[in-house]
Amino acid sequence: MNRKYGPRVDGEHYVTPCIIEYRDNPIGYMQYYEIQETELITYGYKDEQNIYGIDQFIGETELWGKGIGTKMIQLMLNYLCENGASKVVLEVKSNNCRAISSYTKCGFKRIKELNNDLVLMEWIDPSNSTKWQLIE
């Protein structure tokens, strides 16, 4: 665990880790990163710049289905846009309806099927200055 996440926490890795808090309690994890060249090729992007990936989860199951995941993704999209992201992508299991619904609410679109029953979803900032209004 320390071997994988230690360099991230220390800022020595391209992935930036974030602990998600809700009402002053840690409830989940989110990370973001600039998509690396090998992934760009796998995903089918050519010479694209400023594409970021995100991964996230809420570990407290009693908080699922309350819109918290959607809000945290919207906040991350705002942050990444403010820092130059033109696209944000993520992989999701094709049968994870709850997550796909949340991502769709945030403006992600299905792009293509990947190996291992995964779907690539993409969000594109239409103006490079869009600010999300949080869904209440």
What features would you describe in this structure?
- This protein has 136 residues and is an alpha+beta fold.
- The chain has a single domain (2-124), classed as Aminopeptidase (3-Layer(aba) Sandwich), CATH 3.40.630.30.
- 29% of the residues lie in helices and 34% in strands.
- The protein has helices at 2-9, 37-43, 68-82, 97-105; strands at residues 15-22, 25-34, 51-58, 87-93, 109-114, 118-124.
- Mean pLDDT is 86; it is low at 129-136.
At CATH level 3, the topology is Aminopeptidase
The ordered H/E elements are HEEHEHEHEE
Task: Name the poorly predicted regions.
Answer: 129-136
CATH superfamily: Gcn5-related N-acetyltransferase (GNAT)
Shape: globular
Structural class by sheet pairing and helices: alpha+beta
Number of strands: 6
Any guess at the CATH architecture? 3-Layer(aba) Sandwich
